[in-house]
Every structure is written in structure tokens, then in C-alpha cells.
Amino acid sequence: MSLRLFSLLLIFCSCLVVFSQSAVDRSTVTGTVFDQTGAAIAGAKVELQLAEKIQQTTVTDQSGVFRFRTVTPAKYKLIVEGSGFETSVVEFELGRQPVPPFQIQLSIAQLHQETTVTPEQSEISSETSDNLNSIAMNTEALQNLPVFDQDYVGTMSRFLDPGGVGTGGVTLIVDGVEANGVAVSASAIKEIKINQDPYSAEFSRPGRGRIEVVTKPGTSEYHGTFNFIFRDAHLNARDPFAVNRPPEQRRIYEGVFTGPVMDGKHTSFLLSVNRSEEDLQSVVFAQGLSGAIRQNVASPLRNLLVAGRIDHAISENNTFSVRYSFQNRTQVNQGVGGTTLAEAGSKNGQREHEVQFNHQIVLSPKLINQFRIIVGNEVQPAVSLSQNPKIVVLDAFVGGGAQADQLRTESHFQLTEILSYTTGRHFIKTGINVPDFSRRGINNNLNSGGTFYFSSLADYALQRPYSFTQQRGNGHLVFYEKVIGGFVQDDFHLRRNLTISAGLRYDWQNYFHDNNNFAPRLSFAYAPGKASKTAIRGGIGVFYDRTGPRPIQDELLFNGSRLALYVLPNPSFPSPFGPGGVPTTQPISSTRFEPNIRIPYILQYGARVERQLAKSLSLSVAYLGALGEHLFRSRDLNAPLPPFDGSRPDPAFGQLREIEASGRRRSNSLEVTLRGRAGRLFNGTAQYRLSKAYDDTSGISSFPANNYDLSGEWARSDFDRRHSLDLLGTINPGRLLSLGVSVSLYSGSPYSLYTGSDDFHTGIANARPPGIGRNSLNGPTYADVDLRWSHDFHLTKSTKKDGGVKATVGIDAFNVLNSVNYASFIGNLSSPFFGQAVAAQPPRRLQLSCRLAF
After folding, report:
1. Helix (H) or strand (E) holding 496
2. Are residues 507 and 640 in the same domain?
3. Both 99 and 236 in a single domain?
4. How many structural domains are present in the chain?
5. Which of 42, 77, 110 is the last residue of a domain?
6. What is the C-alpha to C-alpha distance for residues 787 and 743, in angstroms, rounded to an integer?
7. How many angstroms separate the CA atoms of 781 and 748, rounded?
8. How far is Cα 281 from Cα 298, in angstroms, rounded to an integer?
């Protein structure tokens, strides 16, 4: 299906939606569900009953809001159920005039030991956003799972699809705004969601390319949580590449404190703190002229994150919140490990201030406006531990200096302005996104001392490098990056059990002259039959990419005049420029965007069937396909022509790197998701994927082996894994034994076979043997099983109002089977490690934790 045909189809469906209003009087019933502290309850089940028969079922969103559309006048009941809360029943009569939004408070149910980690709902729904192959967990669920260093976002990221992630990495949405980081401690996170409403026009990336994080608001009662997490090398197995077990230790002090301001009726606060002290060591596994190099190198890291939040209700329908966060992070010996020696490490830092403002106003029972903005400032210095020229002997060792000196500054803001309107059978959202509007500054002193590249240890012994690169000149640069988007979406309830969602999004990025980036989206959800135990869903949508700041920075810096980049083939060593070391006669390399470059996009489409197997157990089977067009890659337009004797077509220039949008990708996957309570003991989510992905680019910085023949580039994608299985859940066989379980089983991903020599004389040794394509080799499988045991101790008598004071002790075991999961396989024929791995994922590690909550 072409993009133009798809756009016409979407316009036709949108027109059908607009002109399909029913003549029958119908209204929308909406409300908010919250606990006794005033905090919103996400994932609460809400039933709309007429004469004891269920008419509609839904669940509350991250703000605790529920909504029933196309409700005819009659007398109804609202049945509200929340995990850990007493059921609430509200009776009301709906006439021809809409009823005001309900405010429903749930009381805490009798406390019990059992832990629930089921995402927010397992019942079948005909809402397009209630797909059962989404993954959503709140903090209470994640606290009972084995989570390394309380990294909740990292734990959930295993459910992402690398093919849906953009050039700049995964899209992180925090409280409705695209952000650089979560900016709060783990205990201040309320919920994390992946793949919720995958074809929503509100977001630039598909459901499996983004992570949505909802943070906790302040409460009207004083509550607090303090966590202490401890790891020590004496509790760990030895790394298979380490000579001995290095002395390591990690300590995390983390918590949150919240309560009222004054009487707490209108204002509340939340304070969160995280202090991490990491004394770990990197494992070096390299080969030098004198033989094997095995080292454990200390890589200490310190991180402090402090965040405070104020929530205020101007009125019942007008609320706002303000959050400020500060982060300071430092790490020594960054980049060391594998074949990189300690002398090639660097000291890196990060200091960031950020303010987020959220405002929501209910203009009428049908109209809600939400405004959110983030303003921040960030400084990232990096200093090489050694100023010596960098020495790279491919896949043998990296020594000398890191050549990593630079200073990055960034002042940015991101915002969203969304208007939500309900009328009859329609729920319409429209708004503006500004994912990035930033002033970026950089003092780029990278590679100012130069880097020598050698194909092998034999060439290094003969002092015969194949390439030398160095940059000289003015590395100071200030530029603005601007990314703007807008959208409109209509969720149309064609029937009680059939919803069609049609949307259109527009994305724009500066430095591109591609101004027609309209992204249509269309999805549906149908629950046939009165029992509504089965749902059929489908969707199709266009999602545009963006470059991120680094390619823009390269084009502006390496424009041929500002910052000179030299790429010298077969230089002399150690004086590549000869006597005096002044490169006055050497050609300069440059970087540019392809003329009339387009923004890449993916066309994603899919269908799935969902079935409720039991009251708390559901099964989802889904097919997902994607076509990637105009994908980013780099190419040297001044590469030597055949017979590749080293003579460039234009001798006045060196490498002419052109960033193109000429790549493509094809992927297909079958996904099976089982979620809920399976049997009496297990409760959780299991997801299996059978997938296949092919493309002809490894990303915006990748070069083809032969710049004039791209036929060998079409191959398995770098992230292609045919089989993957992920499981998160809990096992509760008794009161004293509560186990959290995490399982990840993956088949191998591909890597390429290289000769290790610069056969095309481009300064890049990425040539492959004749007839061998990209990613022709396959890595090993990956297996990981993690367990957590925890137990609660109630220090004071609990009540339904406050739950009392509770202490929780836990022991986490990561990679409990101590499987050796090799990483960084070498496909370089010139390397002493050809066909071997030079690193491995961590061995078995134990983590002790203690939590105090009141």
C-alpha cells in the first residue's frame, strides 16, 4: 500500500466518522477515582450497569480518569474496583443533560501479603487504547520483582521493539511530555507503560518505540518510603573474563516523602532523593605485542538526584503542579573494558537543572485542556585521562589516550498543549508537541591529538598504520535544534462494541527542507458478541524519525572551514604530517547532508486477537509488520574509485561524508502475550515473539563496505533475533514465601565478518571478503533468570486509612543460574580473537535491600 493511497483511505474514514452522528440523545459519563490520600488510582476497573446488566466496562487512566461514551438516558450504577481497595457503588440518573464528572474515593481493603503484577486490566475492551499486549506496571508491582539497582525503566525496556526506536534512541514520555530523563527517584514513579495505544497520533513513535512514565503527585496525608540497596563482590560469582574477582561495592540510598501543605485541602508536596555510590571495576580482555592483557580497572561513579514537587488545586476543575530536579553525576575511567585499556579512559560528568510545569483545567464536562512544559539546563564535561595520541589495533587493543575532551551545554524546553473534547460518540484530542527546542553549545576537542589505526598486531609491530585521523581548528559551536509536531485524533464509537480511531500527525525538524511530513494513523477495536470475551484489533500508521543533535553538529563543525578533519591513508608513524607536524598541504574532510534530504519514516501495520480465558487471565496473539523507507546512513562520496588504488576522485578533499536518507527495512513478527493469573500460584505477564527483520543500514553513522556497491548491505538487521521470550511475575505459595520472577530467553543476533584491512582505501577498515554480505555471522543465545524474595514486617498496627508502618527486606539474585552470556563477538579476520567474545554479561549477582514505608 502506497503512502498516498493510505492517506486517501484515512481521509475517507475521517469523513465517515464526522458525518456519522447518531440522532439519539447520548452523553458521556466521566469521573476520577482516587484513594484516601487524594492520589489518583490508575487501572481501577469501572463498570456501567443498567438493570444489573453490564453496559460498558473500562479502566482508569494514569490520572485516575474513566470515561463512558454514547450513554443513553436511564438510571445507572457505577461499580468501581481497585486492586487493594474496597469496591464502591454509585447510583445516578442520566437525563438529556450531561452529568458533572464523578469524584469517587476508594477505601483501602484489608491488607494481605499477595502481590499483583498484572498490568492495569485483563478484561476485554473495545477501546482502541486498551490493547492487552501493552505492558504497564505500577511501582507497587515493580517493587516485588527482581529489579537491578531499582532501574524500573531499564527493566521494562526489554519489551521495546528496536525497529520502532528512532535514531536518537527510545522516546521517553514523562507525565505526558517528551523528556531526556525521568528526573525523579524510583520511589516517585507511579507507573511505567509500553505499547499503550500503539497507533496514537499524539506521539511521534509507535507503541514499542516509546516508554511512558507517570510520576506520583503529592498527597493530603504524610507518607514516606526509604530504600537502601547494597551489593558487594563477595556475594557475586566471578566474571569469566576477569583474572580474579575485583573488590566491588554499590550503595543506593533512595526515598520519597509526601504530605500536605497547610491543611492539605488544596496543596501538597513531594520530595524525592537518590544517592548512588558505585565502586565497580571494568574488565579488560585484550592482546598486545607482549601477550595477553588482563586487568580489572576501577570505574567509580557517584550520582545525586534531588527532586521536589508542589501540587495545587485552584478549584475542583483547575489544578497545576510544579516540579524541580537537580542531578549531578561523575564517572572515572569511562569507556574502559573489553579491548580498551585503562589509559584510553576518560572522566565524564553531568550536571542538570530541570523544572516541569503541568496545568489541567476542565473547561466544561465535555472539554479539558492540558498544558505541560519542561525547561532545563545541562552541562556535560569530558576529559581524557591521557593526552597521548590514541592507538587502535583493531579488535586487539585500544591504548594511548581517549581523545575524548569536550564540553557540551544544553538549554532546552519541551511542551505539549492538548485539548480533549467529548461529543456524542466522538472523543477528539488535538494538540501541539514540541519534543525539542534547545540551544546547544559545544567545545569540541575530540581527537585533537589524533588517532592511529592498525589492521593487526603484526602491522603495529612494523609501525604500519592504515589510517590516521585528527581534527584541528575552532571546535566551538552554538546552534539551535527545533522539533515541532501537531496532531488531531478522533476515537469514534461506531457501535457499543466497535471503536475506530483516526488521526493525523505532522512533524517538522529544522535543518531539513522536507516540510510534508504528514503521518496518518488508523486503528480499530471490535468486541463481537454480548459476552465481550474476544476482541479483534488492527491498525496502520506512519511514524517519522529525526536525527538528534550529533549529525547536525557534525555538519556545522566539519563544513570544510570551521573545524578541519584530516583522514590520512597509510601515514608515517609516529609523525603522520612529517617534519614540523603542520598539515598545510593535506586535504580536509567534511560532512554534509544529502541535498533535499528527506525525513525517514516507518509504515507500521498489524492485527491481533485477544481472548479472555478466565476472570483474571487473557491471551493476545498479534501480527506486526513494518516498512522503513528513506532510513539514515552515511556514505563517502569521494571514496577512491575502482580499482581502489587510493586516489580520490577530487584530490582537493579527503573524506566527503554525506548523510543520506536512502536505506530501507522490512520486518515481520508474531507475538503471543499471556497476562494475569495462571493457576493458583503465578500472576504476571509472559510474552513470546517470533520475528524477522532485514535492512541495508546500521544507522546514521554507519558506512557501507563499498561506497559504490551497496548490494552486500541488505541483510539481517543488527537487532534481529528470531526468538525472544520475556516473563515478569510473582509466585505466592504461602504467606512467608513471596517470589518475584524475571526470565529472558533470546536467540542470537547477527554480526559481520571483516577482513580487518582498508581494502578500499577510505580510512575505514570495514571491508568484507568477496561475496560475503553484512551480518553474515550469528551470535550465541542469551538466557537470564532473576529471582527476588521479600517479606513485609508490620511495625505498627495498620488501619484502612494509613496502612501503618511497614518494613520490607528483600534478596535479589540476578542471573541465578550463572549462565555465561557472551557479548562483543569479533568478526575481524585479522584479530587474535576472531570468532571469540571479549566480554560477557554479568555473572550471578546478589542484591540486598531494605525498605521502610509509612
Report:
1. none
2. yes
3. no
4. 2
5. 110
6. 9
7. 4
8. 4
The residues, ordered by sequence, that sit 6+ positions from 787 with a Cβ below 8 Å of its Cβ are 146, 739, 740, 741, 742, 812, 813, 816
CB 199 within 8 A of CB 523: yes
Q: Which residues contact 643 (CB under 8 A, 6 or more apart)?
A: none
d(CA 282, CA 75): 67
Q: Residue 334 and residue 406: Cα distance in Å, rounded? A: 14
pLDDT for res 121: 46
The Cα 330–Cα 78 span in angstroms is 53
* 112 Cβ neighbours under 8 A, 6+ residues apart: none
Residue 23: which H helix or E strand, with range? none
DSSP letters of 750-811? EE--B-SS-TT-SS------TT--TT-EE---EEEEEEEEEEEEE-S---TTT---EEEEEE
Q: What is the pLDDT of residue 110?
A: 33
Q: Which residues does the chain have with pLDDT short of 70?
A: 1-26, 35-39, 42-43, 61-63, 83-85, 96-98, 107-130, 132, 531, 579-582, 584, 734-736, 798-803
How is 290-337 classified by DSSP, letter by letter?
TEEEEEEEEEEEEEEEEEEEEEEEEETTEEEEEEEEEEEEEEEEET-B
Q: Is 729 contained in some domain?
A: yes
Looking at the DSSP bridge assignments, the partners of residue 472 are 564
Q: How far is CA 687 from the centre of its chain?
A: 18
Nearest by Cα to 138 from 72, 61, 206: 61
Angstrom distance (rounded) from CA 627 to CA 145: 36
The angle subtended at Cα 270 by Cα 265 and Cα 272, nearest 5°, is 170
Q: Which domain holds residue 688?
A: 214-304+320-853
d(CA 139, CA 215): 10
192 exposure class (CB count in 10 Å sphere: 0-12, 13-18, 19+)? buried
Evaluated on CA atoms 65, 68, 72, 77, the torsion sign reads: negative
Last residue of a domain, one of 110, 132, 158: 110
DSSP helix/strand/coil, 204: coil
Assess contact for 186 and 156: CB atoms under 8 A. no
H-helix segments, 340-455: none
Q: Which three cell numbers stand for residue 626?
A: 513494518
C-alpha 317/C-alpha 30 separation (Å) is 13
Q: Examine the domain organization and report whether 367 and 508 are in the same domain.
A: yes
CA distance 253 to 229: 7
User: Which three cell numbers mark 710?
Assistant: 551497496
User: Grid coordinates in use for 751?
Assistant: 554480526
Residue 152: which of 724, 745, 740, 845 has the closest Cα? 740
User: What DSSP character marks residue 389?
Assistant: P
- Grouping H, G, I as helix, E, B as strand and the rest as coil, residue 253 is strand
Cβ atoms 815, 784 nearer than 8 A: yes
Is residue 661 domain-resident?
Answer: yes
> Which H/E stretch holds residue 656?
strand 653-678
Total length of the chain: 854
Written as nine digits, the cell of 402 is 581517549
CATH number of the structural domain spanning residue 647: 2.40.170.20
The whole-number pLDDT of residue 10 equals: 45
Round to whole Å and give the CA distance between 232 and 481. 43
Does residue 485 contact residue 505 with C-beta atoms inside 8 Å?
A: yes
- Summarised one tens digit per residue, pLDDT across range 342-394 is 999 999 999 999 999 999 998 887 899 999 999 999 999 999 999 999 999 99
Q: 528 and 396: one domain?
A: yes
Q: What angle do CA 436, 440, 445 make, to 5 degrees?
A: 140
Has residue 134 been placed in a domain? no
Q: How far apart are CA 227 and CA 204, in angstroms?
A: 35
Task: Take residue 183 and report the three cell numbers written for it.
Answer: 528526573
Residue 387, φ and ψ in degrees, nearest 5: -95, 5
CATH number, domain of 60, equals 2.60.40.10
Identify the pLDDT of residue 105: 78
CA gap 761, 639 in Å, rounded: 8
